[in-house]
Amino acid sequence: MKRTLLLPLSLVAAMMLMATTACAHNTGSKQDDIDMAAPEEGATIQVDTIEIMSQAMGRTIKNVVVTPWDYHRYADEIADDVRYPVLYLLHGAYGCYADWSRKADLASMASRYGFIIVCPDGQDSWYFDSPVDPKMQFETYVSQELVAYIDSHYRTYANRYMRAITGLSMGGHGSLFLAFRHPDVFWSCGSMSGCMDITKFPEKWHIKDRLGEYASNKQSWQDHAVCNQIDKVKASTLKPAQNIIIDDGTKDIFYSYNVAMHEILLENNIDHDFIVRPGAHSWDYWVNALDYHMVFFSKAFSRGFTLMDQPQSTDNQ
After folding, report:
1. N or C: which end of the chain has fewer CB within 10 A?
2. Contacts of 296 (CB under 8 A, 6+ apart)
3. Between helices 283-307 and 106-113, what is the axis angle to 10°?
């Protein structure tokens, strides 16, 4: 199922009066209404709510896709030549595909920067392939199935240089985990208040439901912690190296682990941006942080545009 919504400001305001409930992960649900964040005056909302069949999980997964204001304005005869980079934007634990669109003005951001923004329903998967639950194979879903669908159904640049991925909390972990393990898919990646070391939280956020009890599955937990993926970054032969941004608030629950991740990257001579500001583990912080990430990825895409036709294994730095 696919819907494209082109909504005037007055209708968006009416939608925002609708009561919304917590995200449900029942795949049989047909509740697709999204209470969008208030857009800028005169903005036109362009949103697709799509369900994609995951062969890896044997079920459909919901996603929000936000396109720039001009995406649908080109005549058919020239539209195919007008393509866009893609930002994959991940939610946190206990969240869903609609979280970001309810909290941030994604429509204005997509239009301002000229990105397509994709928000998948990561459920409480931690964005890896669970070794104990075949219905939770989200590394495969996001890095392969979702990317393939978006590239085949939207006018994207199907190229690593023109893809970025970032997210908050569980999504911050997920974005770096996926990018570090799939540098051929995501050239740019980021994290906002990400959980860098899941092994420190053996009883939290359904992680043990994805990996098994920590006491009896310590190696699996180690293997799925993003702080332990650095060797994959160092081993990658793809050049230029990935663009990495890590962002956290000084009062965040994961602050010390983000500082530790920063130090690990420094010790391994891995270039990255590390941003620290006052703030806690909250939507106020993440919505503000997204502005920084959009600028960071915009610069990466501008550079990536000149690199797309060059061999990806050649050092262009």
Report:
1. C
2. 188, 190, 243, 245, 273
3. 20
Q: Give CA–CA dist 23/2, Å, rounded.
A: 19
| Tens-level pLDDT at each residue, the chain (317 residues) | 333 333 333 333 333 333 333 465 443 333 344 455 544 554 455 788 999 999 999 999 999 999 998 888 876 777 778 999 999 999 999 999 999 999 999 999 999 999 999 999 999 999 999 999 999 999 999 999 999 999 999 999 999 999 999 999 999 999 999 999 999 999 999 999 999 999 999 889 899 999 999 999 999 999 999 999 999 999 999 999 999 999 999 999 999 999 999 999 999 999 999 999 999 999 999 999 999 999 999 999 999 999 987 765 544 43
Which CATH number does the domain 2-16+30-307 belong to among 3.30.420.40, 3.40.50.300, 3.40.50.2300, 3.40.50.1820? Answer: 3.40.50.1820
